[in-house]
Write a structure and sequence with these properties.
By secondary structure, the chain is α/β, with parallel strands linked by helices. It is built from twelve helices and 17 strands. Helices cover 39% and strands 20% of the residues. Helix 2 links the parallel strand 1 and strand 2.
Length: 338
């Protein structure tokens, strides 16, 4: 991490969605790298107050109340910034089905505002956006909106002209313990005596918050522009996770019951499609999706990374992996501090 520390040291940083589960951990990690300023941009006044109370002594922090849907307000926050972490997002699948334009306004229009602000701010050198496996072959409005956000980030690299800016994306699986994730829900349901799983065969990719944030910073250092970084992560059955949580949270264990699949929800997820795999690179820890957009002035060797080789297998799907056993899920929850 020493290279990251030297890269961050003395710079002005902006974190959109900086009071969210991932954004907040990015902020905490950034502060350990000695930046000049970290601007926390979010629309949740209550969460901003909570962060201010927790980190009141740190004079490097600036709190900007605003929404990425507001282009003028966002442009104000970008002034003199060097690096941008774009973590603000609409991330709720069922709510997106009933309120689709809300997902579009935040994830598509809001991301375009971030791109435009970065292109129009001379000091910005790097923009890293947080995406999700829901963007892969999406069946939900939220997933489709994040797919468009990924494409906006990739395209931004090719419309930057001679500005020398780097736009990149990191694609997450489900992050254990974040707001809106299944773990807080299972903990709450356990108090009522029953945990609800929407389908007995449902599988998901999971990662811890530290894994997620480490991927963000590794991608910042490795990015060539327009690329998408994906951490290799385990798959597990949600029913198995529920059974482990029932044992973990209640005594005697709560029951596991089955309901209906929610609007927009998949049974299985993917982190890498077959089409993406054809041109993706692979390291010991990551997949790197090379942008399909190409222009005449892009050097053939632009997309080279230390230790990366062509992807040697097909799409990366939860249903194609051996799911974690109960004891492995226990170890994952322990590692996540849950």
């Amino acid at each position: 991490m020493s290279d990251i520390a030297s890269f961050i040291r003395g710079k002005k940083i902006l974190v959109t969605g900086g009071t969210g589960s991932i954004g907040r951990v990015i902020v905490d990690q950034l502060l350990s790298y000695d930046p000049a300023v970290v601007r926390i941009f979010s629309r949740d006044a209550i969460k901003q107050i909570e962060v201010q109370n927790a980190l009141a002594e740190d004079r490097r922090l600036r709190y900007i109340l605003g929404d990425i849907r507001d282009q003028d307000r966002l442009g104000f926050a970008f002034e003199d910034v060097g690096i941008v972490f774009h973590a603000a997002a609409f991330k709720y699948v069922p709510q997106g089905e009933y309120n689709p334009f809300e997902a579009v306004q935040t994830n598509v229009i809001g991301t375009q505002h971030v791109v435009s602000a970065a292109l129009n701010t001379p000091s910005v050198s790097h923009v890293v956006m947080i995406s999700t496996d829901k963007a892969v072959a999406p069946t939900s409005t939220m997933g489709a909106s994040k797919l468009l956000a990924e494409r906006l980030m990739t395209a931004a690299h090719y419309i930057r002209g001679k500005k020398g800016k780097v736009f990149t994306t990191v694609r997450f699986g489900n992050v254990l313990g974040t707001v809106g994730s299944v773990l807080p829900l299972f903990r709450e349901q356990a108090r009522g005596g029953a945990l609800t799983v929407t389908h007995p065969d449902m599988t998901r990719f999971f990662m811890t918050i530290p894994d997620a944030v480490e991927l963000v910073f590794e991608s910042l250092m490795m990015a060539r522009g327009g690329d998408i970084f994906v951490l290799k992560m385990p798959a597990l059955k949600i029913a198995d996770l529920a059974e482990v949580c029932a044992q973990r949270f209640t005594s005697p264990p709560a029951r596991v019951v089955y309901g209906a699949i929610r609007p927009g929800e998949k049974i299985h997820e993917a982190l890498l499609t077959e089409d993406e795999a054809r041109t993706a690179l692979e390291t010991e820890r990551h997949f790197i999706i090379i942008p399909q957009i190409a222009t005449a002035d892009v050097a053939a060797d632009q997309y080279t990374y230390t230790g990366a080789l062509p992807r040697t297998s097909e799409a990366y799907l939860t249903k194609a992996l051996v799911p974690l056993r109960h004891d492995d899920i226990e170890m994952l929850l322990d590692r996540a501090g849950l």
